Each structure stands twice: as C-alpha cells, then as structure tokens.
Amino acid sequence: MPGILLIAAGPGEWRAASVESDAAMELYVERGDTPPAGSIHLGRVVRRTPGLDAVLVDIGAKRPGFLPVREGPVDLRLDEGARVIVQVRRETQQGKGARLSTRINPRPGRLDLEQLAAEAARYEPPRQLDPPSSLAHALALRLPAEPERILADDMAILLELRGAFPNTEIAHCPAEEWPIDLDAEFAAVLAPSLTLPGGGSLHIAETSAAVLIDVDTGTPDEASAERGALAANPFALRFCASRFGMEVFA
User: Fold this and answer.
1) Does 27 have pLDDT greater than 90?
2) For residues 10 and 32, is the Cβ–Cβ distance under 8 A?
3) What is the pTM assigned to this prediction?
4) End-to-end CA distance of the chain
5) Burial class (CB in 10 A: 0-12, 13-18, 19+), 204
6) From residue 237, how far is each of 46, 67, 89, 233 by CA, in Å?
C-alpha cells in the first residue's frame, strides 16, 4: 500500500486514512475492542455445540469465538475447559463471535509455532499471543501492507507505532498540516445519504441481511423519468462498487 497513513489519536480510539495523491483511499477506525483477523490467542473452550459441530472459545472478547471442530487435528481434545491456541479468521461482526481456527499461520518475522507454544505455556487463557495487544499492532493487521510513511497528530504514540511498523518512516505532524480533513472524510463516508451530480441522491441503509440502496432521481431535467433513472444509475453503481467492494457488470 504505497503512500501515507494519517493517524488521529483520541481517547480509546484511533482514526486513520490511507492517502494517495492528496486523496483518502481507505479509512480505518481502531478501538482495540475487537481481536483483528490474523491475531493469535490462547483461549479456553467454554461450551460445545454438537449441533453445529463446533465449540465456543473464550479469547478475551465480549463474545466467545466460534471454532469448527473439523478444522482442527483429529487428536485435538476440545472438551469444556480445555486450553487451545487459535487464530482469528474473521472478526466479530453483527453480534456474532469471531470465527477461529486451530490452523495457525504465523506472520513472517513474528513468532513461529514452537515459540507460540512456549509463550502459551507461560499464561492462563484468555491471552493474545501475537501480535502484542495494542492499537498500533491491531491497526497493522488490518492494513494490506506496511505503508511507506505514517504521520500522527500525537507524539505520544510514535514509539508504539515504531514497534508495529518497523520498516516505515514515522513522524509527528499536526492535523492542520495534513493534505485532507480527516473528520470531513469520515462524515462523508458515514452519511446515510449522498447527493448525485446533476441532482438526485442515494439513501443507504445497512442491515444484518443486506445493504439497501434507494436511488432517488429527484426532479431531473430529462424529458422522462426513464431517462432520469438512466442518468443516475451509472453513478450509483460506481459508488456502490467503490464503497462496498461490489463487482459491477454492465
């Protein structure tokens, strides 16, 4: 991920933006309350769910993680109370616990499987084994690659950032000197409605089952409602593709 990562540090929350050519490409919020995908934990089995062929594992999150039994070795005992080393495959979302696996894939340059086992033997579960539990390391796991440069608005977090991003140039820079207004970027992307060029708007509602998008063409200048819809829909499709990672086929 080339370019700059801007980080605004607040009490219990970091807001960050990946910036290229003075434009925000990705936005991130890190609160440290959700174990990120890729993190490795020493957990304890709290309950078996035979109907789902899975166990629930306490990894220190608000909800126990979900571990399918079939994904572990045949000889792995997963009785209630058992200690188990797991890796988060999918983060907690919409009231569901994290999806876990006992197939551990350590990150290059981090603890290997033998070191993880030795580290786990020192503690009682739940315990995050890798990376260290910090906002900087959690944010690093969420990024597709290490950025070339990081600018933070708080000098107090620079040391923590250098531990999580050892190959990145890191410096303090007041938010007033950033190429973007981070608060405005977040306000725009989280707004439930978006005005379309030439009139009309999109109204967006996210539910547990789907993302609902209403295209309101307003009062277009075109001679008919059909032409107004044709003018608005291409922009709406492009917006949805960029915001929600959808594939659009003409």
Assistant:
1) yes
2) no
3) 0.77
4) 29
5) middle
6) 45, 37, 30, 6
Provide the 3-class DSSP secondary structure of residue 142: helix
Give me 30's structure tokens.
């890190």
Helix ranges (H only) for the chain are 113-120, 135-142, 158-164, 182-190, 225-244
Pairing of strands 4-10, 149-152: parallel
With 60 as the cut, is the pLDDT of residue 48 above it? yes
- pLDDT of the residue at 136: 96
Residue in this structure with the two tokens 């060029």, named with its chain if needed? 197
Distance (Å, whole) CA 83 – CA 60: 13
Comparing 7 with 144, the larger pLDDT belongs to 7
Per-chain mean pLDDT for the chain:
86
Dump pLDDT digits (tens) for 196-210. 666 677 777 777 667
Band the pLDDT of 250: cuts 50, 70, 90: very low
Contact of 39 with 183, CB cutoff 8 Å:
no
Token reading at 214: 């209403």
**Taking CA 167 as the corner, what is the angle to CA 176 and CA 115, rounded to the nearest 5 degrees?**
130
4, β-bridge pairs: 19, 149
Round to whole Å and give the CA distance between 147 and 166: 11
Strands (E), 91-131: 99-101, 127-130
Max mean pLDDT among 28-32, 83-87, 200-204, 220-224 falls in: 83-87
Q: CA 114, 115, 117 angle in degrees (round to 5)?
A: 65
* CA gap 165, 203 in Å, rounded: 38
